[in-house]
Amino acid sequence: MIDMHTHLLPGIDDGVGNIDEARGLLDAYAEAGFRWLAATPHVDHPTVHTRVDQIREAYRQVKEEAQQRGITLLLGSELYVTGARPQPGIPLCGHFQMVEFHTAIKPLFAADMVFHFGMLGLTVIIAHIDRYRWFTLKDPAIQRMREMGVLFQMNIDAVQTQRGQTLLESGMIDFLATDNHGSERSPVSLETFSSYPGIMEKSLRLLSL
Ligand SMILES: [Fe+2]
Predict the structure, then answer these.
(1) pLDDT, tens digit (0-9, with 9 covering 90-100), for 58-113
(2) Contacts with 6 (C-beta within 8 Å, 6 or more apart), sequence order
């Protein structure tokens, strides 16, 4: 299994606070049967400060801890986008840029942003689509983004909601992930992932893992 959206790097953003907390979470992931994790720290978030210059060192440290537990830790980023030509983030597996938007305001620039990343050879993954009030499957703009190759991630908590179930049934979900911000925030149910083997398989295939 894979969890491709997490804030597991200690002291980097508003996620995990220290290395002991990261170790505890890695233990839980290993026990639940995860073989791949991606650390995706916030980049360019309007309210969260990220220690961008410390990302690589924190990644190296947590990657080693993960390896000891049979888990491959990948590095990516969750880039907050407000326009068609955002600053670069850290692409996951070198090919995928995960982005997030304002939850209430529809990003009318989104298709241009997707095109911009496309020209850089990057596929856009939209983080936690369940959270956006403007995201509806009937919206032609969403269909257009799909045609442009955009991938969609839903947070695992959302499977408990009607909206989450509707999104799952649509076949549009490419990734289920925790958006794990550490043990201080709401506890994350890792067991739920095993109920969605089809999506796990699809995720690994899309990321060529
Ligand atoms: Fe996140």
Answers:
(1) 999 999 999 999 999 999 999 999 999 999 999 999 999 999 999 999 999 999 99
(2) 15, 37, 38, 39, 40, 177, 178, 179, 180
What's the predicted TM-score (pTM) here? 0.97
Q: Using alpha carbons only, give the angle 174, 158, 122 rounded to the nearest 5 degrees.
A: 30
Q: How far is the CA of 115 from the centre of ligand 1 (A)?
A: 23
CATH of 2-206, one of 3.20.20.140, 3.40.30.10, 3.30.70.260, 3.60.150.10: 3.20.20.140
The candidate with the shortest Cα–Cα distance to 159, out of 142, 177, 139, is 177
Give DSSP secondary structure letters for 33-70.
T--EEEE--EES-SS----GGGHHHHHHHHHHHHHTTT
On whether the CB atoms of residues 92 and 98 are closer than 8 A, the answer is yes
Kindly list the protein residues that place their beta carbon closer than 5 angstroms to ligand 1, a single-atom ion: 78, 179
Question: How many Å apart are CA 60 and CA 102, to the nearest integer?
Answer: 31
Query: How far, in Å, from the CA of 50 to the mean position of ligand 1?
Result: 12
Q: Tell me the chain's radius of gyration from C-alpha atoms.
A: 16
